[in-house]
Every structure is written in C-alpha cells, then in structure tokens.
Amino acid sequence: FRTLDDLDASGKRVLLRADLNVPVRDGKITDRTRIERLLPTIRELADKGARVIVCSHFDRPKGKRVPEMSLKPMVEALSATLNRPVAWADDCIGPAADAAAAKLQDGEVLLLENTRFHAGEEKNDPAVAQGLAELADLYVNDAFSAAHRAHASTEGVAHLLPSYAGRLMEAELKALDAALGNPSRPVVAIVGGAKVSTKLELLGNLMKKVDVLVIGGAMANTFLAAQGHAVGKSLQEAEMHDTARQIMADAAATGCEILLPLDLVVASEFAPNAMTRTVAADRVPPDMMALDVGPDTVDAIEAKLRKASTLVWNGPLGAFETPPFDQATVAVAQSVASLTASSGLKSIAGGGDTVSALRHAGVLTRMTYVSTAGGAFLEWLEGKTLPGVAALEAA
Ligand code: 3PG
C-alpha cells in the first residue's frame, strides 16, 4: 500500500478516516490514546499544506442521529491535543459537509459528524462512499482499529479516491507483522477479559501459533468449569464447556501449553474494595465469585515470560477497573515492562481494555508496541483479512 511518503499533499483536500471512537464516560473522554496516536498524520498533512477533512464513526447509533453520539465534543478534544483550530460540519456528507469543506484553507483541519448517523455507512452504500469522495481529492486511512469493518468510510471510499495508509495505520501493520508474522520463540499469549465466546475462536487460532497460552479474566472461569471445578457465582458461559474442552484437547495435540489460573481472588460481590479471599482455582465457594487471578498464578505467568521472546497480550487478567481486582494485571504488566527493557522481550498488546489496563499500571509506553485496536486487533490475531487494509492494498 501507499503511504504519506507517496503523497503530494500541498493544496489537496484530503479525507482522513480516523478512529475517534474513544471511550467516554459521563460525557468525558476517559482515554485519549486514539486521539494522540492520530496526531502525527494530521500534523504531517496539515504542515504539508493539505486541507484535512477528518471523518470517523463514534459508538453505534445504527443509522440514526443520536445526539449523545455526536462527534461535536471531539472538536475541542482534537483541537486541544493538536494545538490548532478544528472546524466542524454537522454532517459527513451532503450540503453541510460540502460547504464546510469548501471553506477550508490549506493547512486547516475540519471534523465531520459521525459517519454512522447514515445507515449507508455500515451497509457500505456506494451513495455514502460517493458523498465522502466528493469532499476530497485523496483518501488517507489511519483507522486500523476500524479496518475490520467493510463500511463506506473504511472500504467503499478507498475505491473512489487515490488511497493511502496514514502513519498510524502504517505503524500498526508494520509492528504487528514484524512481531507476529515470523516471531522469535518462545511466544507467550495472554488472553483475558470478559468477552468469552468471541475470544474462544481466537484461542483456537492462537494455539496453533504460540507456545504458551495464558488464559485469564472471566473466560478462564469457563475453562475451569469445563474441567469440572466449582466456580461459585463466577461469570462463565455454561454453553461453551464443550468448546473449552475441545480447545484444551486441541492445544495438547498441537504442543501449545495452556496455563489456566492456579489460584483466584474471590469476593461475595463485585464492588470496589470488596472483602476478598484468595483460594485455589478449584475451591471457589458457592456464594463467591472470582474477580482476579491470584499471586501463584502471577508467579507462574512471570516464569513463562522470563523464558519468552515474544508476548502477545489481549485482555486483562481480572476486573482491573475495580481495585483491588487490578492486582494481577498490574503485577504482570510491570513484569512485562521490566522484561521488555532488560531482556529484550518483544511485547505486543492490543484491545481497548488492555490499553486502559497498561495505562492504569503505568507501563503503556514501556511495551514494544501497543495497538490502538480492539476488534481489528483480534481479527488480525485470528488471521483474518481486514477489509479496510485490503482496500488500501488494492488501491
Ligand atoms: C473499535 O472501537 O474497536 C472500533 O472503533 C470499531 O468499532 P465498532 O466495533 O463499533 O465497529
């Protein structure tokens, strides 16, 4: 694919597909990583004299104008992080977008309203792609994290304008490819989090590629239950037990070692600063639930990491947003950071929760590479073709 190195931006109207789908709570952005990682591309384009027209989806408004899902608050966030003014258009296509784009001068930046306010965005409707294409001379896609969606703004428009990968897209693809295309072994993968059924598929694929598969978070409960252990009130998916057993059998057959929790931190309710106990993984009391892995498990993971060359991490080990259930995730994150610095461990992490967890642990900048992607990172780990990337490659 072509990059900004191949693009003569001066005086050009550039449609930049960003991913401003950032986590927001009570109207406040809780993590600006995606905005920050986008800045090099915007700056480079604007400094080269392009008229930068930024578009993105936000949340899942399902083709309706949902006021709480407007990108308007992002004007200030973007402008503050960029340290330059950002203009606004109330729509991503049509008269409002056309008028705002027409007013833009060289080096200026415009943000368009949520692309998903149009039902045609997610349907990859050629009319939406055409409306977007009419705003610009060139298309730059910097939304690796939305590249698993074949939408008008991520895929369709790439066929209508000369298309390029932005700096973030380029960095994501280079880092992931170099790290996992042909990784140095042993490779350890840590997979955690609550999205059990979605990640079981990932586990099936990862076990063919990695040497040790560490399973933590709520999905570990499903595996423990599938082994016949009492899991008490723990979150788990009973209907996935057969699949979990199959995964364990397949992993054994392919020579991939699965590491399940040896001990668990349990509480009778999921609440901040709840009273906790640490129990063996097969001893969760009936009235309690597992919310983190315990210290013996952390030791076992660290032992694997000390021998590893490459680590792929997706998903926290426990309910890290609610201390004290952050302890295992923080401890392992800090070990990974030290090993990355001291013994050249190649540490690659991705997923919205994982990024927040690493930030919480204070080690976000001490990994070899942190992807901004959630679902796209997963699909990439599953070996799937990402339509947004394929469209750039075809361009
Ligand atoms: C993400 O946050 O993973 C991307 O922005 C894609 O969002 P989506 O899952 O709503 O398509």
Automatic annotation (TrEMBL):
Pfam families: PGK. GO terms for molecular function: ADP binding; ATP binding; phosphoglycerate kinase activity. One of its GO terms (cellular component) is cytosol. The keyword Transit peptide does not apply. Keywords: ATP-binding, Cytoplasm, Glycolysis, Kinase, Nucleotide-binding, Transferase. PROSITE patterns: PGLYCERATE_KINASE (PS00111). Substrate binds at residues 19-21, 34, 57-60, 116, 149. The keyword Transferase applies. It is found in: Cytoplasm. (2R)-3-phosphoglycerate binds at residues 34, 116, 149. Monomer. PANTHER family: PHOSPHOGLYCERATE KINASE, PHOSPHOGLYCERATE KINASE 1, CHLOROPLASTIC-RELATED. This is Phosphoglycerate kinase. It comes from Falsiroseomonas bella.
